[in-house]
Write a structure and sequence with these properties.
The complex is a heterodimer of chains A (about 80) and B (about 375).
Chain A (H helix, E strand, L loop, with lengths): L4 E9 L2 E6 L2 E6 L12 E5 L2 E5 L2 H12 L9
Antiparallel strand pairs in A: 1-2, 1-4, 2-3, 4-5
Chain B lengths: L9 H15 L6 E5 L2 H9 L10 E5 L4 H4 L2 H11 L4 E5 L13 H6 L3 E4 L3 H10 L4 E8 L4 H14 L4 E8 L2 H8 L8 E4 L1 H7 L5 H6 L4 E3 L4 H17 L4 E3 L11 H10 E8 L3 E10 L8 H4 L15 H5 L23 H4 L4 H8 L2
Parallel strand pairs in B: 1-2, 1-7, 3-4, 3-5, 5-6, 7-8, 8-9
Antiparallel strand pairs in B: 6-11, 10-11
Classes of the chains: A alpha+beta (about 80), B alpha/beta (about 375).
């Protein structure tokens, strides 16, 4: 029930979106989203509602922090 | 970037495991961290997170599966509604197999009840629109992630003038039970892996009291393997450094203030109420009921029905499993009498239930 995964918006029609992940398309509503979105943005869709827009800058920062955890012998 | 593959890097997972091992080396006191989100429960089993942690770092599951914490009385009421004529029950899939006191919605469907599984509550509104001569009751179960979706469906029905759409509401809010469990000496929780998408709605701010007043480290953590390992590493750091604060590991989705629009939709439709949790009992102000303004959409208030006296299943230890006090493996029914195809308790039914996760991945 609580499955919410990042999906890419492929079309927007008013408050309705179609979003896609791994070729699976889902309809969703923008009714409770508090961010502006456009086609190509990623959102978390939960029970048919987009609840959050993915923040690319934050994602890159998290990845950077994670990479610092590499053991020295595996550092890239 | 698709926001998933990047967070499944094996080298990063192993690197974080190594760092956690070094941070805890030489410590004699074990650390116990609890997650309160069914998707975390599944992810921990699915990715074998426990096997990557040193023995001194223990992960336990709390009341994070919304279907599981819903008491039998709610299921019994849904079943009673399904037996009335002119009623369509619409629900998320997990609910249909949950055993009530003497039946389940799946059994009722086999006997002729109209029980439909939907992906979104808006699908249930559409069913109501297509069936104006019948009443559609949506089973509104879930935490703060699901509550705004249900509220949104009620606002949609109200805007379209659809009066045969109703909700049997039993929403629960997670921060209060977290506070209650954090003061349970038997559990001695050293930190919370805070839920990911609940926090997208309520914001990380919601855990401040827990961290600052009760001294429990809180890290809002994502669902991918590197997220989980980094979340645990951040909790270990707090314990080692003697800190207790709220931190956001899952910053690509969760903000301090949460989703204000979703919060306002919840506040518009619902009011706070006392709520019964399976295994924990009634927790004051830990639930959401449909407020007066939208009471025409409240199934419980508008459709009278007699409901059987709820009873619990003999021997089932779901209640203790939900509090993190019993591991599924310690329940005498687990994998003997209680199995996914013939579940005794809710924790074995839901795909997010601790027993279902333990059965699928943990044996």
């Amino acid at each position: 029930m609580c499955l919410g995964i990042p999906m890419k918006i492929i079309s927007i029609n008013g408050m309705d979106i179609v979003a896609e992940v791994d070729g699976v398309k889902r309809e969703g509503s923008l009714m409770i989203l508090d961010a502006e979105v456009q086609v190509g943005d990623y959102v978390v869709v939960h029970a048919g509602f987009a609840i959050s827009k993915l923040d690319e800058e934050e994602a890159l920062e998290t990845l950077q922090l994670m990479r610092e955890a590499f053991p020295v012998e595996n550092a890239v | 970037m698709n926001y998933m593959d990047e967070f499944r890097d094996r080298q990063v997972v192993l690197g974080l495991a190594d760092r956690i091992k070094k941070l805890t080396a030489g410590r004699t006191e074990p650390m116990t961290f609890m997650e309160v989100c069914g998707t975390h429960t599944m992810a921990i089993y699915q990715y074998g997170i426990r096997s990557l942690l040193p023995p001194g770092v223990r992960l336990i599951s709390g009341p994070g599966c919304p279907v599981c914490v819903t008491p039998n009385g709610y299921i019994d009421r849904a079943i009673a509604f399904s037996r009335l004529s002119g009623i369509i029950i619409a629900t998320f899939g997990d609910m249909v197999r949950v055993p009530g006191s003497s039946s389940s919605l799946m059994e009722e469907r086999a006997r002729g009840a109209d029980v439909r599984i939907v992906y979104s509550p808006l699908d249930a509104v559409a069913i109501a629109e297509k069936n104006p001569d019948r009443r559609v009751i949506f089973l509104g179960v879930g935490f703060e992630t699901t509550a705004p979706a249900i509220a949104g469906s009620i606002l949609t029905a109200a805007a379209k003038g659809i009066s045969n759409y109703l909700v049997l509401a039993a929403h629960k809010t997670i921060p209060l039970p977290m506070e209650i469990l954090s003061s349970d000496p038997e559990l001695s929780i050293d930190g919370y892996i805070c839920p990911a998408h609940v926090s997208a709605i309520i914001g990380a701010e919601a855990y401040r009291q827990l961290a600052e007043k009760r001294g429990i480290p809180c890290v809002v953590t994502g669902f991918e393997p590197t997220d989980m390992m980094q979340g645990v590493e951040m909790l270990v750091c707090q314990v080692v450094e003697g800190r207790s604060s709220v931190e956001i590991q899952y910053s690509r989705v969760v903000k301090w203030e949460g989703n204000r629009k979703a919060q306002s939709v919840i506040a518009e439709v619902f009011s706070v109420c006392d709520s019964e949790w399976r295994g924990i009992g009634v927790i004051p102000e830990s639930g959401l009921e449909i407020g007066d303004k939208y009471s025409a959409f409240d199934a419980e208030k508008n459709i009278p029905v007699s409901v059987e006296e709820p009873r619990e299943h003999q021997g089932c230890r779901c209640g203790d499993v939900l509090k993190g006090k019993t591991s599924p493996f310690d329940c005498p029914l687990f994998a003997t009498v209680c199995m996914p195809e013939s579940p005794v308790g809710a924790c074995m039914v839901s795909s997010e239930g601790t027993c279902a996760a333990a059965y699928k991945y943990g044996r």
